[in-house]
Amino acid sequence: MALVVVGTFVVALCLCAGYAQAQAQLQVGFYAQSCPQAEVIVRDEVGRAVSANVGLAAGLVRLHFHDCFVQGCDASVLLDSTANSTAEKDAMPNKSLRGFEVIDAAKTRLESACAATVSCADILAFAARDSVVLTGGSPYAVPAGRRDGNVSEASDAQNNLPPPTANVADLTQAFANKGLSQEDMVTLSGAHTIGLSHCSSFSARLQGYNATTGTGQDPSMSAATASALAAQCGRSPDAAVSMDAGSPDAFDTGYFHALLANQGVLASDQTLTSDNVTAALVAENAYNTYLFVTRFGEAMVRMGGIKGLTGGDGQIRTNCRVVN
Questions:
Q1: Distances (CA, A) of 317 to 27, 141, 304, 305, 321
Q2: What DSSP letter does each residue of 29-64 carry, written as one string?
Q3: What is the per-residue pLDDT across 101-144, written as a single tens digit (0 to 9) for each?
Q4: Concatenated DSSP letters for 217-274?
Q5: Phi, psi of 27, deg, nearest 5
Q6: Residue 150 CB: number of other CB atoms within 10 A?
Q7: CA 122 – CA 146 distance, rounded (Å)
Q8: Which pLDDT score, from 0 to 100, does residue 109 have?
Q9: C-alpha span between 255 and 191 (Å, rounded)
Q10: Rounded CA gap, 104 and 26, in Å?
Q11: Best label site of 56, 209, 236, 248, fewest CB within 10 Å?
Q12: What's the CA gap between 164 and 235, in Å, rounded?
């Protein structure tokens, strides 16, 4: 066991070093000279979209996460599949991603304002931040300077994105593999305070949870929550429910309060209360809004620095869906 712990620690150190190197090449205000209106244009497009459909705010935050966790923050999640390759966006964990059209709209305007200058990867990072702010979260500065990748493989998404059934140990390892801590993991999970989950992602918690008897509900979910979710999902197997029923469209601490009350929708959410360390972090975020929003901005910046392409690597796509 000691050898495993030491090995994990060494890997984490190496990944953190890679993160630090990538982050050092990203700068707040990166487009101040080359495209001064870049962040304003993205904010405007995100604002227009979220005003029409508030659910897109959660979709855009999720897009950024699913991008960064696969090959680093290189906008590979935006690339369309080709005749010879199935792209990340068509992998099973990404089938429900949304917000692509918002990124397209921002990119079109940016190409008109300053052609071949602003990367799709940076647009994703800006859009995620703006989505948080528009739903009530606190603003944070986004370092930019990412470049866009040329490769997108569905298998990479399948192998890197934590499933909704992951336990706390699996999640901790998945985040450590990206150079992120347990605090980052719990804090970033707080993004589930907005948005929806499809019933198929948690239906096993509602019935047939006991593998031996094929009956019963997940005991870590409150009976009232399980009953309410079963009623909603019973209307349609493809139904989607709010992950923070108390304030589904507000970026607040409601998600953490729900976990403390055993009302987490996904197993990968409720598992955060099964470990003493992560449970303490859940409670800290639940009862200190300022601490949560501060941690969240800092964790998003760290996540946004995962293994990104910078300098002369990659390219600046003119269309986020295809390589140049």
A1: 20, 23, 19, 19, 8
A2: TTTTTT-TTHHHHHHHHHHHHHHH-THHHHHHHHHH
A3: 999 999 999 999 999 999 999 999 999 999 999 999 999 999 99
A4: --TTS-HHHHHHHHHHHHT-TT-EEESSTTSTTS-SSHHHHHHHTT--SSHHHHGGGS
A5: -135, 140
A6: 15
A7: 6
A8: 98
A9: 8
A10: 23
A11: 236
A12: 22
CA distances in angstroms from 141 to 102, 118, 303, listed in the order given: 21, 17, 13
| Beta carbons within 8 Å of 118's beta carbon, 6+ residues apart | 31, 35, 38, 107, 110, 316
- In 3-state terms, what secondary structure has residue 27? strand
pLDDT (0 to 100) of residue 24: 60
What pLDDT, on a 0 to 100 scale, did the predictor assign at position 2? 31
d(CA 60, CA 183): 22
pTM: 0.91
301 by DSSP, 3-state: which? Answer: helix
Residue carrying structure tokens 């303490």: 280
Question: Rounded CA gap, 15 and 7, in Å?
Answer: 12
* Catalytic site positions: 66
| Residue length of the chain | 324
Q: Which two tokens stand for residue 203?
A: 């239906």
DSSP sequence for 174-185: HHHTTT--HHHH
Q: How many whole angstroms separate alpha carbon 130 and alpha carbon 140?
A: 9
Q: Which regions in the chain score pLDDT beneath 50?
A: 1-15, 17-18
Q: How far is CA 305 from the centre of its chain?
A: 13
Tell me what pLDDT residue 3 has.
30
Spell 107-125 as b/e; 16+ CB within 10 A means b: bebbbeebeeebbbbbbbb
Cα–Cα distances in angstroms (integers) from residue 76 to residues 157, 199, 276, 322, in the given order? 10, 27, 36, 10
